[in-house]
Design a protein that fits this description.
about 150 residues; alpha+beta; OB fold (Dihydrolipoamide Acetyltransferase, E2P); five-stranded mixed beta barrel; 8 strands; globular
Length: about 150
């Protein structure tokens, strides 16, 4: 009896934790191919090297699945809603140095307005596409991606 109760309690706790993640924000579904081989670090490397050929290969119909941390968004337009946020990924070099890689995410549409309010510092999973090079506010050349869907990771 104790084992059954413990197993049921663990199952309920697991289901509750998974359900707490919430639904994705943005497009309710994506139909197409998602490229899992490219991450934020690779995109940042393409920008540093100004590798337009590599960027052209990934900026077609495929989307990218990226994991990172959102920075505070900059609102570009209220109507229609558009915001840009830095998306960061850290990489350990040895045991004492961390290198940050970044791309910029462009959020368009009312679905993202409420999510982005207070999103700074959140770990998120993003489906994005249409990668382009642009000059960021600090004058660096960076990759900008259009967000299709985003889901916070708590």
């Amino acid at each position: 009896m104790k084992r059954t109760f413990c197993a049921i309690a663990m199952a309920i706790a697991l289901v509750s934790a998974v359900a707490a993640q919430g639904a994705p924000i943005g497009a309710p579904s994506f139909v197409g191919r998602i490229d899992l081989s490219i991450g934020i670090a690779r995109l940042a490397e393409m920008a540093r090297a100004d590798d337009t050929e590599a960027l052209a290969r990934i900026s077609g119909e495929d989307a990218l699945l990226l994991f990172g941390t959102l920075s505070r968004p900059s609102i570009g337009s209220e109507e229609p809603y558009e915001a840009v946020a830095e998306f960061l990924e850290g990489e350990w070099i040895g045991t004492s140095k961390i290198v940050l890689h970044r791309v910029f995410l462009v959020f368009r549409g009312e679905d993202f307005r409420e999510f982005l309010d207070g999103s700074s510092g959140r770990r998120t999973v993003v489906i994005a596409r249409d990668a382009t090079f642009r000059t960021s506010p600090d004058g660096a050349r960076d990759v900008y991606l259009d967000v299709i869907s985003v889901r916070p990771i708590f």
